[in-house]
Amino acid sequence: MTDPYAVTADELRQFFERYEQLDAEKRDIADQQKEVVAELVARGYDRKAFKEIIRLRKMKPDQLAEFEAVVEVYRPAAGLA
């Protein structure tokens, strides 16, 4: 008779290995993103502005419109009008 815990251990080990593989892929992608930003800066573009635009592009259109409307209301109060 086979050990029922062996099957569970094998399955659990596979989950660990899959997770670790995904973690390695995530690190590789992060390194590639850093390379893109380094190239961007080397060509004279502004890193902070680029990152801000990336953040804004991730927003849904309605969220972006609401955010921009609130910023326009806040600008005069902050002395940026």
Distance between the termini: 79 Å
Count the beta strands. Answer: 0
How would you sum up the global shape?
Answer: elongated
**How are helices and strands ordered from N to C?**
HHH
Mean pLDDT: 94
Q: How many domain regions? A: 2
* Uncertain parts: none
Q: Into which percent range does the helicity of residues fall?
A: over 70%
Radius of gyration of CA atoms, rounded to a whole number:
23 Å
Strand content: under 5%
Structural class: mainly alpha
Largest sheet: none
How many H/I helices?
Answer: 3
Molecular structure report:
With 81 residues, the protein is mainly alpha-helical. The chain folds into two domains: 1-44; 46-81, no CATH class. It has three helices and no strands. The chain has helices at residues 4-42, 47-57, 61-77. The longest helix is centred in the N-terminal third of the chain and has 39 residues, at 4-42. The protein is elongated. The model has no long low-confidence stretch (mean pLDDT 94).
List the helices and strands and how they pair.
Elements lengths: L3 H39 L4 H11 L3 H17 L4
Question: What is shown here, in short?
Answer:
By secondary structure, the chain is mainly α. It has helices spanning 4-42, 47-57, 61-77.
Notable characteristics:
single chain; 81 residues; 3 helices; 83% helix; elongated
